[in-house]
Specification:
8 strands; TIM Barrel; 8-stranded parallel beta barrel
């Protein structure tokens, strides 16, 4: 097992989480096998993954039938199914949670993406979901929209552990880390004033920084810029493809190293606070011309998480090459982003577009999921009639 590249990542300070959920994965031993053999120490999901699990398998049909028979509407069916799945996964990972001192062993549940631009209702829904699952090792996922930032700050100040999702830009990432630090400061102050809130050491957070989608959009824009350019310019522009995502993530990691250092952080750390780890998300390779482990091999370093979908996990087990890479080529990454900007492609526009598209895609998946559940519920209810 020592030759498994997935298990070797731990030695470089990176945790492997699995980006998938499904009833079959949980009850048939698939997740436990990955925990035992591949050093998988956490699980993430999102509305698209959950929608696919319910819509394309029959794994949930008996559970849905029971809930419909009890009179549950589609919203309560979804709540129950999500809480059961996340709860089962959290129970499977609880030993990891204990042995790692709550560094790992986490499972995420996502706030309805329709609330991504609603601070108040995001806070309310995050509290509700945390209570619904009722496990200590559950992270509530909150999108890093402009309206999500104050929600994250408030949730951390209340002692909720948060997975901040859909981060694309370094500027927004700095806001996310700032919200975490401010929330932690408020938590410490509130505890000092006598409020019954969790200890800082028990409040954890990860910042899910999305990777592959940056290349997908930048490549399209670079190809558009090359169209009609002269041969030399065309070659120069096309040579920049497939590099923006890794460069963007490497510069984000530099921001992480800067933020979790110095007097402000040291004061929080002395009070028990833990770093908010960057989590590399969207790490499957979309372009078949690139290595299928590109977004793992190039983003390895201390205090990080890589959440891998199934195909990426399998590929990395087979031919990953673990070594510290996140702190390598940082100046080259700056030059690369500079060259893309000089080509007339503003990274701020790229990341703003990706954020909006990401929120919309998850919201669409959530609506599709609700439609699937309503159709299944209506079919079952009609059959009972």
């Amino acid at each position: 097992m020592g030759s498994n590249p997935l298990t070797q990542l731990q030695g470089f300070g990176q945790s492997v989480w699995y980006d998938n959920i499904g009833r079959g994965l949980l009850v048939a031993g698939g997740l436990k096998k990955m925990v035992d053999e591949d050093a998988v120490v956490g699980l993430t999901s999102n509305p698209s993954i959950f929608q696919k699990a319910i819509a394309t398998t029959d794994e949930y049909d008996s559970a849905i039938a029971e809930l419909v028979a009890s009179g549950a509407d589609a919203e309560r069916v979804l709540d129950t199914l999500m809480a059961e799945d996340v709860g089962m996964a959290a129970d499977l990972l609880h030993a990891t949670f204990d042995t790692t001192g709550s560094v790992d062993g986490w499972v995420s549940i996502e706030v309805n993406p329709a609330l991504a631009y609603d601070t108040e209702n995001t806070v309310v829904e995050a509290r509700r979901l945390r209570a619904l699952v009722g496990r200590p090792n559950v992270l509530v996922k909150v999108p890093a929209t402009e309206q999500g930032i104050p929600a994250i700050e408030r949730l951390i100040s209340e002692g909720l552990s948060v997975n901040v999702t859909l981060i694309f830009s370094i500027d927004r990432y700095r806001e996310v880390m700032g919200a975490y630090l401010t929330g932690m400061e408020h938590l410490i102050t509130r505890r000092a004033e006598g409020e019954d809130l969790p200890e800082p050491a028990s409040v954890r957070s990860v910042a899910s920084f999305f990777v592959s989608r940056v290349d997908s959009l930048c490549d399209t824009l670079l190809e558009a810029a090359a169209d009609g350019a002269d041969a030399e310019q065309t070659d120069a522009l096309l040579a920049l493809r497939g590099q923006a995502a890794v460069a963007n993530a490497k510069l984000a990691y530099q921001a992480f190293l800067e933020t979790f250092a110095g007097p402000r952080w040291e004061k929080l750390e002395s009070a028990g606070a833990k770093v908010q780890r960057p989590l590399w998300a969207s790490t499957s390779t979309k372009n078949k011309a690139y290595s299928d482990v590109l977004y793992v091999d190039e983003l390895i370093g201390p205090d990080t998480v890589n959440t891998m979908p199934h195909a990426t996990l399998e590929a990395y087990r087979d031919h990953g090459d673990p070594r510290v890479t996140l702190t390598q080529g940082v100046e080259a990454a700056r030059r690369l982003i500079g060259a893309i900007e000089l080509a007339g492609i503003a990274m701020s526009d790229v990341t703003s577009r990706l954020e909006a598209e990401g929120v919309a895609a998850f919201a669409d998946s959530f609506e599709s999921l609700m439609a699937t559940l309503r159709a299944k519920r209506d079919g079952l209810a009609g059959g009972q009639g």
